[in-house]
């Protein structure tokens, strides 16, 4: 399927003419001398219905209103992580219960700079988002952002932009099978209705995985995801991040900055879905991750147990909960010891890597009633605004 991956990370620039609060969120073409604001939100890739940053350029001050859903992903940033200018001015109005944060600063305050052009006086300042470290130090789920803001007091003006062409290409997910059972792992779209075409994500988005097994003429089987490990290369080399571990514990959901979970109920016994907040490896410039999951099946009439389960961490109750079965099958997730440690993870290095496919052979002495396989999806490109910055500069007439 052909598509333009750059559509996913295009930038935006808005020109705001100040006419009071009623028009704060409406961009206008400028036609007469009057204060106007220039805001570059290309670093945010905002998808929210309202623009995340609205600016009023007043006679002696600038008023910046910021929606805490800064990236349009439904995840509110902390107000304390937002500052204005190089002087890191704090918001004038904010509350943990509010969805917006407001800054008010004089044109010469907060480290703003003045530039004089033949057409205008231009006051420049930046809105800064600097997230505090949280969760596992090996991975990050959000990245800092800087939103340039300018207040112009012009004679004439317009805005121009230059496009940027990506230098990379996406790849398809991979599929592997084991013996007569065909295991699969796919990336799905947000409503689980179809396989996702793109493998490009931004920090703040959610990865929707669907694991399945084609049972064909087999007796009814129930599928489990025993473990999933992410790595920057397809051979599961260091560094690694195990987000499902201990025979079906989705441990990533315990981190403060994650909402990862198994989806319940299952669509079918031979299918298991799980959602994981996007992440990338800290310090890795490739921004690629490969996900290797160990899938296995048991008889559909076999009750879940500590070795055959799908458990998510519920932050509201502070307890582990199974997709099916009694809650006690998840108790070993808290102890991080579910028996037969290392039984099913990384049995062999890949015996084949070609054409976007991985196949791993499993030991012949496995329980004949338990079929299993390792499946790889990747590479996934997880980007933030620093990876492909889009520069927008107003022309000088």
TrEMBL record:
Gene Ontology cellular component list: egg coat; plasma membrane
Domain (ZP) ranges: 56-318
Swiss-Prot/TrEMBL GO biological process terms: binding of sperm to zona pellucida; egg coat formation; positive regulation of acrosome reaction
Post-translational modification: Proteolytically cleaved before the transmembrane segment to yield the secreted ectodomain incorporated in the zona pellucida.
Main location class: secreted
Listed SMART domains: ZP
Recorded topology in the membrane: Single-pass type I membrane protein
Record's keyword terms, sorted: Cell membrane, Cleavage on pair of basic residues, Disulfide bond, Extracellular matrix, Glycoprotein, Membrane, Secreted, Signal, Transmembrane, Transmembrane helix
GO terms assigned for molecular function: acrosin binding; structural constituent of egg coat
Domain of life: Eukaryota
Record's function text: Component of the zona pellucida, an extracellular matrix surrounding oocytes which mediates sperm binding, induction of the acrosome reaction and prevents post-fertilization polyspermy. The zona pellucida is composed of 3 to 4 glycoproteins, ZP1, ZP2, ZP3, and ZP4. ZP3 is essential for sperm binding and zona matrix formation.
Description of its domains: The ZP domain is involved in the polymerization of the ZP proteins to form the zona pellucida.
UniProt record similarity statement: Belongs to the ZP domain family. ZPC subfamily.
This protein's name: Zona pellucida sperm-binding protein 3
Organism encoding this protein: Anhinga anhinga
